Amino acid sequence: MATKVTDILFSMYEDFFDAEKKIADYILANKEKVVDMTVAELARESKTSDATVSRFCKKCNLKGFHHLKITLAKELSDNEIDIVKSNNIDINNISQSLENILANKIEELTQTVRMMDEATLSKILDLFKNAECVQFAAVGNTIPVALDGAYKFNQLGIKSVTLSIWETQLGYTLNANEKDVIVVISNSGASKQLVNLAKVAKEKNATVIGITNSESSPIARLSDYHIATATRERLFVEEYCFSRISAMTVIEIFYLLLVSSSENSKVAIRKHEELIADDKI
Question: What is the rounded CA–CA span in Å between residue 263 and residue 271?
């Protein structure tokens, strides 16, 4: 399935220059208008230039402004993204706000799944099955995703680790080898700490799997395999926030596919559940 303009803009947003961000912001807020605009009109409304709009389209891996408009029109005609018309969050209208959040989160997960390449996913699963150890690396608000990954994989019988202290994460990676898999989870894919960790992992001949919002990010480029996640957070807040839901879903997909493909995993899960059963009321 072709990638939507919305997903391209969200995934590449942090890579845009300031002028390009103005164009992206205008498109996201005025999709219906942009479909009927000329290059000059979009440039004027976004307070940029014709040349900047043309370069912006090429940077988004589109053939030009006409290609952008066709792709955008297809999105609207498919009626898949009505959510941009209802992206307000208002404490005085909680009922509608909940519907808006739900619609955007559904779209977020839908696009994350649709962007997955089956062949890449299959190779990643094989790597997990044969790994000596799987390290989940993250910083800041993605640490809960890494913790969830390590918990789930250990439950499956796949030796896994994550560490919340950055220096300890790096120290662990320094002991990696060619039999290890390092899963690097990042919003922008440009965290200096995680980029350095990925470089160390490559030096140690470990396999690096990146989970980020941007296919063109430094971490994505360093990775042997990359999974792109979709986000709709910018529809709600101007400041960019990383939605953990998409990344958590990627981990959940790994988990469920691994369970379905291995009887040993099912046995390991049952053993784990038996051992913790006494803690449950």
Answer: 13
- The residue to which tokens 């320094």 are assigned: 174
Give 226-266 pLDDT, tens digit per residue: 999 987 665 445 444 556 889 999 999 999 999 998 888 88
User: Is the whole model's pTM more than 0.85, yes or no?
Assistant: no
Are 187 and 242 a contacting pair, CB within 8 Å? Answer: yes
User: Quick one: three-class SS letters along 114-139?
Assistant: HCCCHHHHHHHHHHHHHCCCEEEECC
3-class secondary structure, 187:
coil
125-167 per-position pLDDT tens digit: 999 999 999 999 999 989 999 999 999 999 999 999 999 999 9
Alpha-carbon span 32 to 51, nearest angstrom: 22
| DSSP states along 202-244 | HHTT-EEEEEES-TTSHHHHH-SEEEE----GGGT-SS----H
What are the pLDDT digits (tens) for 180-230?
A: 999 999 988 889 999 999 999 999 999 999 999 888 889 999 999 999 998
CA distance 272 to 117: 32
Is there a single domain that holds both residue 69 and residue 129? no
Give me the CATH number covering residue 52.
1.10.10.10
Coil/strand/helix, residue 189? coil
Task: Give residue 188's domain range.
Answer: 116-279
Distance CA 83, CA 103 (A): 6
Q: Which of 80, 104, 129 is the last residue of a domain?
A: 80
